[in-house]
Amino acid sequence: MKIAIYDSGIGGLNLLLEAALRLPDAEFLFYGDTEHVPYGEKTPEEIVSYADEALQFCVNHRAEAVVIACNTATSMAGEYLRKRYDLPIIGMEPAAKAALDCGEDKRVLVIATQITVEGEKLQRLIGRFDARHLVDTRALPGLVRLAEQGDFADGPVLSYLEETLGDYDFSNCGFLVLGCTHFNYFKDSLRAFLPEYVRFFDGNAGTAKQLMRKVGRDPEEQADRHIPVEDTVMQQEILKDILHRTTFYASGELLCGEAWEERGRILLSRLIRMREIR
Fold first, then answer.
1. CB 77 within 8 A of CB 85
2. 13 to each of 79, 143, 271, how far by Cα in Å?
């Protein structure tokens, strides 16, 4: 089975990691639309056009299911793509409902791109499930650019977080929802910035489980795997396996060679570490 993971850039590697851990016999095609990243600064019409081009590429390369590993692309183009293409298409949405379902009377802060925060899909989601009006939203587009530049250093990231979130009252906030897959790269800096009682939520595991359902697999047959950060041997084995089973493209251009393999290894290795931060 070949599964395509499509994102505006490197954020979708989060979904690749989750899907590969749960589907050890699957082959993957990763399509990062780096020519047009960040999507959060594009018009809805542009995003639909980019997504249509990416999905057609995935279909032409014999993908049997596609995960849109981008909240912005899902919000702007998901319905259109499902009508246009006859294969399972799994989208993403910020995990605000999962945070609200915890039943605690704590505020939920959703951080995402500007277009996701302002989009009708997220507003409908909040309207359906936020009966107690606990959800706040903030746009943090700069994190997408920092991720694409590979700038994960604490200094610049913490300065940006102070600039964008420094005025937010976290005293009654229990949950931070990462509404963009690029944001997972910064969980260490976010953890350092936030009060220790604020918990993270993202849509990666839930989306991977939905993928399994759509391709006829039981989501419980491959449980959520804990990867000890100190077990470098296990990490290297996992990275080797994922890189072996995946063909990578940047806006349709094949990524290969030692330079890309090393970059892919570094990014996935970071995501493995970030995955363990709660």
1. no
2. 23, 16, 8
pLDDT of 225:
67
Close Cβ partners of 72 (under 8 Å, ≥ 6 residues apart) = 8, 39, 40, 47, 112, 113, 115, 116, 119, 180
**Tokens 């999962």 sit on residue:** 98
**Residue 128: which residues within 8 A CB-CB, separation 6 or more?**
none
Length of the chain counted residue by residue: 278
In the set 70, 102, 173, 256, the catalytic residue is: 70
Please confirm, yes or no, whether 102 is among the known catalytic residues: no
Please tell me the distance from the alpha carbon of residue 134 to that of residue 85, in angstroms, as a whole number: 37
- Residue 38: asked if its preceding bond is cis (omega within 30°), the reply is yes
| Cβ atoms within 10 Å of 120's Cβ, excluding its own | 11
**Catalytic one among 102, 173, 180, 256?**
180
Distances (CA, A) of 37 to 47, 70, 72, 116, 193: 10, 11, 11, 14, 26
pTM over 0.85: yes
b/e map of 238-249 (b: 16 or more CB within 10 Å)?
A: bbeebbebbbbb
Query: Is 180 designated active site?
Result: yes
114 in Cβ contact with 38 (< 8 Å): no
User: pLDDT tens digits, residue range 152-187?
Assistant: 988 999 999 999 999 999 999 999 999 999 999 999
